[in-house]
Specification:
By secondary structure, this protein is an all-alpha fold. It has helices at about 5-30, 35-40, 45-65, 75-90. The mean pLDDT is about 85.
């Protein structure tokens, strides 16, 4: 539990959030959605809650098992960004 309450865990949570928002920005830039990022998430709250639960639950497992413990390791940073990006891509289909 102590591993989840570290500054690195916060950094990884922010990186996963950047992956989530990055997916929505990609869809917005390709004109697949015409609303703001907030409206995108607010339009289907059940999928949004499921996505955040899945992404941050998986991130907690990554951190607890020392798979995401070094913010200077680019592979770990990319894996966490991809976790957020793919988590949103898989669940928030609108």
């Amino acid at each position: 539990m102590d591993k989840l309450l570290t500054l690195n865990a916060l950094y990884f949570a922010l990186i996963a959030t950047a992956g989530i928002v990055g997916h929505v920005v990609k869809k917005w830039s390709q004109k697949q959605i015409e609303v703001s990022v907030y409206d995108w998430f607010a339009s289907n709250p059940q999928s949004t809650v499921a996505m955040f639960t899945g992404v941050f639950g998986s991130l907690a497992l990554f951190i607890a098992n020392d798979q995401a413990n070094d913010i200077n390791n680019l592979m770990q940073v990319m894996a966490v960004f991809g976790l957020g990006y793919m988590g949103n891509s898989a669940v928030n289909k609108q």
